[in-house]
């Protein structure tokens, strides 16, 4: 499957000016998105895709979140629905130690909720959680 480029950031709950959510639009740059303050338990971002696109797999790079959930929706309105149920990226011990925070995971069709997989969407909502750090 071809890679889908992200068009724009629709909304973001929190971002550090040095690591804004717009960094997600250029994944090859290696830049990341981070919360405005250390210790935030949950942050989210809504991203726009260039038109309605089917999603068959996800390639997620993570920096410091213990959990990541991906939801999909349509810009015309309506609710978001879960595409990738909350996935663990860091254990409690890894989170508290603060070492090796970069993680990369690939989620194929079998990891995605079938009701949303393969359908066409133009919005992604990423929810990143870190309940283990202060």
UniProtKB/TrEMBL annotation:
GO MF, one annotated term: damaged DNA binding
A Pfam family assignment: XRCC1_N
Gene Ontology CC terms: nucleus
InterPro entries in the record: Galactose-bd-like_sf, Xrcc1_N
Domain DNA-repair protein Xrcc1 N-terminal: 1-133
SUPFAM superfamilies assigned: Galactose-binding domain-like
GO biological process, one term: base-excision repair
Designated name of the protein: XRCC1 protein
Organism in which the protein naturally occurs: Galbula dea
Organismal lineage: Eukaryota, Metazoa, Chordata, Craniata, Vertebrata
């Amino acid at each position: 499957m071809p890679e889908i480029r992200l068009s724009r950031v629709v909304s973001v709950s929190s971002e550090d000016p040095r690591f804004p959510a717009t960094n997600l639009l250029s994944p090859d740059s290696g830049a990341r998105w981070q919360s405005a303050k250390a210790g935030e338990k949950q942050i989210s971002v809504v991203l726009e895709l260039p038109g309605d696109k089917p999603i068959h797999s996800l390639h997620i790079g993570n920096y410091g979140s213990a959990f990541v959930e991906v939801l999909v929706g349509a810009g015309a309105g309506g609710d978001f629905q879960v595409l990738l149920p909350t996935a663990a990226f860091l254990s409690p011990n890894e989170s508290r130690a603060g070492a090796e925070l970069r993680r990369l995971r690939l989620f194929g069709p079998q990891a995605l909720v079938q009701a949303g997989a393969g359908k066409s969407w133009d919005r992604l909502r990423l929810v990143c959680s870190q309940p283990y750090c202060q």
